[in-house]
Specification:
single chain, alpha/beta, TIM Barrel, Immunoglobulin-like, five-stranded antiparallel beta sheet, binds 1-deoxynojirimycin
């Protein structure tokens, strides 16, 4: 079984992990310093949010050079050393490639906008105005028109995100060739995979047709995005990317298909499982605390995917409020959610700090850094609240930096930090560790088929993971009341429960305490 199916992937937002240079911003040195910690936690790979040179308008999701490392985070030697030290500990490194757009300061864009006849003139998506208006009605995800006027070329350019992130023209064969060679460059260096930013946006309609309007909650959702993203040809492009990656053994790509509609996301696996290796299912990021809702999301995804498509699940990332806070800052609920994440069929992705229950931080307006928050506060406070510095200990700035942190540290750091939790047996940290170990130990949890159990208790999410030799029944009590489940045909062996609130057997019945859980193993 490939490591990226078996393993747990840990997302690091490098600015916020650990600052070793003393400038208030996390760096690669910080990641290197904490490799032993990550190894102890038991993860198999690190996904590094972008570490390439970037003017940081969107904190690295605006790249100005794909072939080197941002000096803000360290040198190329630091990166090589990180790769070596991670591999030495059996930890893989996944880079975040942002290839829908570059920074507006990328030399390609500077050349492209200098005039209409330069060699890179067609590397971005330029179009003439319609009268004085933009060429079509496309909207930017971050608000307003997706087109910006450029006085030099006297044309509009497309930016699906901020104006500092002009969209590349993947239809231009030279652009495609260059972008595919970025994959090769890093694969040859030895990186193990990529998280691909907004792959659904790569190819746009070649005639730049306007999107039809529809009913939606916010302006961006008031159009059906059929021409500015998810063009059918985009799937063929994913197949080409897959081929490039598969020339190197044991490498992978996980696609960010930022779609509400998971049917669209499923298409990115390709018609013959020859598209991207993994694609995120983001439905968990929006579920209320109801087992039926999670159950439906899992069932829907399992039904959409072919047997050989491998799911990827996540509860948190750098774009959404931390899941523990979405569920009432409750540690017991966090444990239930984590037990679900690690027992489903698919690769679990966890977000730095999730293992210690770091909560969402309220950032005062004047301290907001995220361009989304700056533009939309208070309607949208931005994404800073989930990107605050990692809470290592009770020292100044939670041990993240010796100077002023780039973003406020959550004031709860004296209570919620790594040092404290590593010392406590019943902490969330040790719960995550045990879950990771349990998944490693029991093959059904890694590669077993998933089957939703027909249990009728509305408070419990229950499913089976089955291989030909063994089956595991997963029981998760979402409620704050004790629940009892009758087990048939037999009790099974309790291989995982919450040590602080263990499940108990009583004559073919199992009692699950409030927010309790049980993984039961059966030999077939
Ligand atoms: C998705 C990334 O996750 C987000 O952080 C970023 O702002 C946009 N893509 C644009 O690159």
């Amino acid at each position: 079984m490939a490591w990226w199916k078996r393993g747990t992937i840990y997302q690091i937002y490098p600015r916020s992990f650990l600052d070793t240079s003393g400038n208030g911003i996390g760096d690669l040195g910080g990641v290197i310093e904490k490799l032993d910690y990550l190894q102890y936690l038991g993860i198999d790979a690190i996904w590094l949010s972008p570490v390439f040179p970037s003017p940081q308008y969107d904190f690295g999701y605006d790249v100005s050079d794909y072939y080197s490392i941002n000096p803000l985070f360290g040198s190329e030697e630091d990166f090589d050393f990180l790769l070596k030290e991670a591999h030495r500990r059996n930890i893989r490194i996944i880079l975040d490639l942002v290839l829908n757009h570059t920074s507006h300061q990328h030399p390609w864009f500077l050349e492209s906008f200098s005039n209409r006849n330069n060699p890179k003139a067609d590397w971005y998506i330029w179009a003439d105005p319609k009268g004085k208006r933009p060429p079509n009605n496309w909207k930017s995800v971050f608000g307003g028109s997706a087109w910006k006027w450029n006085d030099k070329r006297r044309q509009f350019y497309l930016h699906s995100f901020t104006p500092q992130q002009p969209d590349l023209n993947w239809r231009n064969p030279e652009v495609k060739k260059e972008l595919l060679s970025i994959f090769e460059y890093w694969l040859e260096k030895g990186v193990d995979g990529f998280r691909l930013d907004v792959v659904d946006f790569f190819l746009k309609d070649e005639f730049l047709r306007s999107n039809p309007y529809c009913i939606g909650r916010r302006p961006y959702e008031m159009q059906k995005h059929i021409y500015d993203k998810n063009r059918p040809e985009n799937i063929q492009l994913m197949q080409e990317i897959r081929k490039t990656i598969d020339r190197f053994p044991q490498r992978m790509a996980v696609g960010e298909v930022a779609e509400r509609n998971v049917e669209i996301a499923a298409a990115y696996y390709g018609p013959n499982n020859d598209g991207l290796h993994l694609n995120f299912n983001f439905e968990f990021l929006e579920q209320p605390w109801k087992p039926q809702k999670f159950c439906r999301a899992i069932e829907k995804w399992e039904n959409l995917l072919e047997d050989d498509n491998w799911p990827a699940y996540t509860l948190s990332n750098h774009d959404v409020p931390r899941y523990i806070s979405r569920y009432g800052n409750s540690i017991p609920r966090a444990k239930v959610a984590a037990a679900m994440l690690f027992s489903l069929r698919g690769t679990p992705f966890i977000y730095y700090g999730e293992e210690i229950g770091m909560t969402q931080t309220r950032i005062p307006k004047r301290e907001i850094k995220d361009p989304v928050g700056k533009r939309y506060w208070p309607i949208h406070p931005g994404r800073d609240g989930c990107r605050t510095p990692m809470q290592w200990n009770s020292d100044l700035n939670a041990g993240f930096t010796s100077s002023t942190p780039w973003l406020k540290v959550n004031p709860n750091y004296k209570k919620v930090n790594v040092e404290k939790q590593v010392q406590k047996d019943h902490s969330l940290f040790h719960f995550y560790r045990k879950l990771i170990q349990c998944r490693k130990k029991h093959p059904p949890l890694q590669n077993g088929k998933l089957q939703i159990s027909s249990l009728t208790n509305q408070n419990i999410l229950a499913y089976w993971r089955k291989t030909s030799d063994e089956s595991i029944l997963v029981l998760l009590n979402f409620s704050s009341q004790k629940q009892t489940v009758t087990l048939s045909p037999s009790e099974g062996e309790l291989i995982f429960t919450c040590p602080k609130a263990p499940a108990e057997f009583k004559r073919k019945k199992i009692h699950l305490p409030p927010e309790g859980m049980a993984f039961l193993l059966y030999q077939n």
